[in-house]
Amino acid sequence: MSVSDPTALTLRQAASAIAQGRLHAEALVDACYDRVERLQPTLNCFIRTAPDPARAKARAADMAVKAGRTTGPLHGVPLAHKDMFYRVGEICSCGSKIRADYVPDHTATVLKRLDVAGGIELGRLNMAEFAMGPTGHNDHFGRCRNPWNPEYITGGSSSGSGAAVAAGLVFGALGSDTGGSVRLPAAACGVVGIKPTLGRVSRYGTMPLSQSLDCVGVLARSVGDCARLLSVIAGADSNDGLASRHTVPDYERGLDQALDPRSLAGITVGVPDRYYYEGTDGEVAGLLAASRAIFEKRGAKIVDVPVGDHGAVNDLSNAILWPEGAALHLSSLRDRAHDYASQTRARLLVGLGVPATLYLEATRARTPLLEELLQRTFSKCDVLQVPVLKRPVPTAIETDVGGGAAMQEILGQIVANTRPFNYFGLPALSVPIGFTRNGLPQAMQLVARPFREDVLFRVGAAYEAAVGGFTARPPL
Amino acid sequence: MRDGIDAAALETVLASSGVKVTRQDVDAVARSLARIRDAAAALFPSPLLDETGERFFRLLEGDADEGAGR
User: Fold this and answer.
1) Quick check: A371 and B59 CB within 8 A?
2) Cβ A415 vs Cβ A177: under 8 Å
3) Tens-of-pLDDT digits for all 476 residues of chain A?
């Protein structure tokens, strides 16, 4: 393994090199900061950096290796996170003006778990204001730009997470996903991203948007890297009553078998018979078809499967998301309305108009609708495959619509294929599948039954192995 | 009326929250509510008298437990 450019390694390769003493954590942190310094003016990924504590931790990590001790599976690995995960005593802006000086009094469980595993946090990443917005625009901190072409959107709301990982500034990043906010930036920036099952990861110490839909997820440059990060952060938490007690498997176990040419024997991939592919751009559809041909070569069976009216599910999720968000923001909407971006405010106002009975109906309807999906659809397949985006990644100008009448239409198109799986609470993995003619990445979304992230990683890793890994780097 | 929503009534509801809204805000919210209403009509064929939100979480966990035997 070459470590001539250590920022080009995957997270797992970097962790191994550090643990074996072939790469110093401090040198790796320095290399990452060099890239941050060079690329921040172009990409605007970071809201703030913390070089001194990061370098101190890296030196400690190197000393531990020298002494024959390692602290965990992320020992010495540079990470950075969306600026909505609380760390006691440190500003957490949530991408907003309203929380520009907010200093939490507690630390997120996910950050504690990453710390224990040995990860080194380089700083805080850009995001949509209060995690509302699927494009990467931010009126307060400036737009985060796509490493493949700065004129294009990064996707959001975890915009900095997608761009920083793709640009090789860090090896992995936390994001949050309430309607697609991990999967969309992963797809638009050409990295892997997972939204786990609702409840799989503790949300203690993370900025809430919608308790019924919010998930903490991760972005990294390979399927195995995401598997490692999820293994570290998933699991029960006494500080979060809604975090599942379901056993966390070692998601990396068995991923080596992805290299087997028949690694998907026994797996059935379902292609929904309606909604998700309707209106999909021809170029995108072609990339998805090519990825299914790879699945078949690896031994998977491809079948068409029935799904319900998921277009209506997409719209209905607004009856949960916005009332829950508006309730959290009510005080600030009254007193500091001018400190919200127009688009953020406009979306929250929808929540004030949803009748309580409709909110409750939408919440209760999740059970029969999920039952139907499990019985009708997942009885016929192990994973669903759908596009993340139905069209090539748009430019920033195309999506710069403010809070006016066009906003809901354009933003609705972007989240059309991601939001239903937040409503259902199901795990979903975004995996790169190539590039469209505009030079921007495209991705497939793999979806599984509850708590079957292991199946998603198995299928994603098999695809990744078949195409020789996601080795292309943005022209930076 | 806006998209079948009584805009004046909606404006009253929004204003009762204590948040200042404009007519443009009300129109935008009415459009969104109309879509949500249509979705609900398509997805709620019958009353769900015995359905509770809690059962959704049990279904998620229960499906995973059953998965071991699938």
Assistant:
1) yes
2) no
3) 446 899 999 999 999 999 999 999 999 999 999 999 999 999 999 999 999 999 999 999 999 999 999 779 999 999 999 999 999 999 999 999 999 999 999 999 999 999 999 999 999 999 999 999 999 999 999 999 999 999 999 999 999 999 999 999 999 999 999 999 999 999 999 999 999 999 999 999 999 999 999 999 999 999 999 999 999 999 999 999 999 999 999 999 989 999 899 999 999 999 999 999 999 999 999 999 999 999 999 999 999 999 999 999 999 999 999 999 999 999 999 999 999 999 899 999 999 999 999 999 999 999 999 999 999 999 999 999 999 999 999 999 888 866 566 666 778 889 999 999 999 999 999 999 999 999 999 999 999 999 999 999 999 999 999 999 999 999 99
The DSSP output letter for A374 is I
Q: Distance of CA A36 to CAs A24, A31, A49, A430, Å? A: 18, 9, 9, 25
Chain B contact set for A211 (CB, 8 A): none
pTM above 0.95, yes or no: yes
Q: Name residues 407-436 of chain A within 8 A of B (Cβ).
A: 407-408, 425
CA distance B70 to chain A (A): 10
CATH code where residue A131 lies: 3.90.1300.10
Please tell me the total count of domains within chain A.
1
Kindly report the backbone phi and psi dihedral angles of residue A120, in degrees, each rounded to the nearest multiple of 5, phi listed first: -115, 120
Give a yes or no: residue A395 inside a domain. yes
Sign, CA dihedral A414-A362-A304-A257, equals positive
Task: Tell the residue number behind the tokens 């390692």, with chain if given.
Answer: A70
Quote ipTM for the complex.
0.92
Question: Within the 305-344 window of chain A, which residues sit less than 8 Å (CB to CB) from chain B?
Answer: 308-309, 311-316, 318-319, 322, 330, 333-334, 337
- Report the C-alpha dihedral over residues A325, A328, A331, A332, rounded to 10 degrees: -60
**Looking at the partner chain, which of B10, B55, B67 has a beta carbon nearest the beta carbon of A452?**
B67
Q: What is the CA A79 to chain-centroid distance, rounded?
A: 14
Say whether B21 and A368 touch across the interface (CB within 8 A): no
Give a yes or no: residue A135 inside a domain.
Answer: yes
Mutate to test the interface with A, among B60, B61, B63, B70 (most CBs of A within 10 A): B60
Spell out the domain ranges in chain B: 7-68
